[in-house]
Amino acid sequence: MVVPPQYEEHDSPDADPVELVREHALGKARSVAPHEECPVLGVDTAVVVDGRSLGKPGNATEAEAMLERLSGRTHEVVSGLCLVTPGWEELHHEATAVTFRALAARDLAHYVGSGEWEGRAGGYAIQGLGASLVERLEGDYLNVVGLPAALLVGLLAQRFPGAHSLG
User: Fold this and answer.
1) Count of domains forming the chain
2) Per-residue confidence at 14, pLDDT binned at 50, 70, 90?
3) For the chain, which end, N or C, has fewer CB atoms within 10 Å of the first or last residue's CB respectively?
4) Does the annotation mark 140 as catalytic?
């Protein structure tokens, strides 16, 4: 079940991106947990380049500027993950390195024209047309999609031994 969190994000431009995603994941999970009897998962993801988070572009011009900044470079996708139960909570983070190929003006125009950048941190979605922008990825692909699945599975295996097995 998906429950929208009652948590308002406050991002300081000078905040450490890792601490920020951890804080947001914790805040999201805690805002839902008192209303649920089952475990609650909160996740927040940021695209980080030059030590600064790129948010969600507000328009096509901002999206193009973000993609130009990522062109031919490696950036990190950092996610905070918080699992809260009535008896305990776990807070972790995961980082994945993503390298974009050098993008020509036509690449930028095509991608921005697709509208896929809308509502996406860093202005792209790797699970769609954004995959064509990527040259290399080091780490958890699903973290870049928005859920650090390897981290979550490891946490569940640790906290709920045998619950995740296929046999």
Assistant:
1) 1
2) confident
3) C
4) no
